[in-house]
């Protein structure tokens, strides 16, 4: 692959930090490599990241208030049952009981615990497609046979008849995201309940990854766990609040279902940090600054994306509507099937990074994230337009 020469910050010499980037075998591997590009100080417009930029000022205020001059009362043991203040804050936020919640080091850890409790090697797990490849990888890691639940463009809905046809007596779980990653489409509560009802016919549990769901709280707040006894949701403070540093996640579900998870992992998530989960408790008890941060961020970035999307669609360069919630857009690139090649060209010739649809099982699409600054987003979308116009 041709090296991409990127000019770093503070007078750094050009380097081939993008070398081999698109040889990554999975989105997770690609994403880690992209983070290294970003942290190198390279002068690249980032259109790939679907996480809200970290609210460092608000986080500093929370830490300062919680640990100065004395240690916060929220700094308690997290062994087995997690930080009780964080659990209580989550219960209040989502209208749940404390025994319906279990905290973890993140949504992926929560998913892993759930799958280990419900699935034995050789059982079937159905995972949405296109989708975030980490979901399927978690199922494979415990020996499950992974099948696909299709969510076809342009509406990315799940066909209940298609789902029913793919269920078997050994189907133990169906895994979906809401908001859908990568499209950003929201499934309404009635749609999720209907999916759970189909899964229940073979005794399967519907697992809903809701890391983006709070973006659409005004349209029906998460978690979906309250819709049916065979639904369990996983989430975290990473995507909407931008607090990936805290490694704070949770699962929610019927107490009997969570009891199975606890029985399978009696020590809980052993990686939970007493310190970071104490900070998370404070964040959840006083979320207003963090809610204001993501709302302010999207108030700046969403109009920029909408303006460019309108123009790109009108010119026949992209197809697909911008979803009303969240910070993801997953258009089809008109006339382009190999979006890895397109993404490589965008980086090497236009200093712009997008996530190719191949990493989500949807060649011909790209995922554009807009959870950061509007100025960089505007520049990147201008470059995308220039590239696509040149290709045509």
Strands, helices and their partners?
Elements: H1 27-39, E1 45-46, H2 56-67, H3 84-94, E2 101-104, H4 107-118, E3 124-129, H5 133-141, E4 145-150, H6 160-166, E5 171-177, H7 189-200, E6 205-209, E7 231-236, E8 249-253, H8 255-264, H9 274-285, H10 288-314, E9 318-319, E10 328-329, E11 332-333, H11 339-350, E12 352-353, E13 355-356, E14 366-369, H12 374-391
Parallel strand pairs: 1-12, 3-4, 3-5, 5-6, 6-7
Antiparallel strand pairs: 2-8, 7-8, 9-11, 10-14, 13-14
- N-end to C-end Cα span: 24 Å
- CATH topology of the largest domain, which one? Aspartate Aminotransferase, domain 2
The CATH first-level class of the largest domain comes to Alpha Beta
**Superfamily at the CATH H level of the largest domain?**
Type I PLP-dependent aspartate aminotransferase-like (Major domain)
Quick tags:
single chain, 392 residues, alpha/beta, Aspartate Aminotransferase, domain 1, Aspartate Aminotransferase, domain 2, 2 domains, seven-stranded mixed beta sheet, three-stranded antiparallel beta sheet, 14 strands, globular, disordered N terminus
Brief summary of the model shown:
This protein has 392 residues and is α/β, with parallel strands linked by helices. Helices cover 40% and strands 14% of the residues. The protein folds into two domains: 21-56 and 290-391, Aspartate Aminotransferase, domain 1 (Alpha-Beta Complex); 74-286, Aspartate Aminotransferase, domain 2 (3-Layer(aba) Sandwich).
